[in-house]
Amino acid sequence: MKIKILLIVFAIFSTFQLKAQKDSLALRTERIAEVNDQEGKFKEYNPLAPAKAAFYSAIFPGLGQIYNGRYWKLPIVYGALGTSVAIYIHNDEQYNRYRDAYKRRLAGYNDDEFQGVLENDRLIDAQKQFRRNKELTLLVTAAIYILNIVDANVDAHLQQFNVSNDLTLNPAIDVDHINRNINYGLSLNIKF
Description:
α2 packs antiparallel against α5 and α4 runs antiparallel to α5 (about 120-155). The protein has a domain at about 45-160. The chain has about 190 residues and is mostly helical. Strands 1-2 form a two-stranded antiparallel ribbon. The protein has 5 helices and 2 strands, in the order αααααββ. The protein is elongated, with a radius of gyration of 38 Å.
């Protein structure tokens, strides 16, 4: 009896399989338009452009940034160079002021602006301090000038670098719930 019921149920369900069904494997015949995403995003790479940008920045500070089209960097370059040159001039003036007062005292004059305020030893110390500050400021100015050249060169090199949303770098902090330790990590995501 059980076998007859099983055969009847099997026969009923097998008849449903004989119905015509939509072909799920049929290929679509729609035409897909080709899209070139990279057209217009990248300029043709000129291998001499980084050297040219560095040369321009070496000739005149900020000219390499203009050549690269990074006009917003100009105030930074001139602000940094102008500030360091102004500090150098201030330290040079102070150094000359204390040196002239000390020389006048050695020549026998007692009419300098520091008379009665500073002793000779203090004038020598002030000269040393402002001379040291002047030399350090000169080194900082040279470093800013070199950094200007390096920035123009690196910026010209990286103009062809892909900075789309398909490439992301995300720092993350994760708490290990078992040990209650904090784990630091860095995630690099690339989408295709």
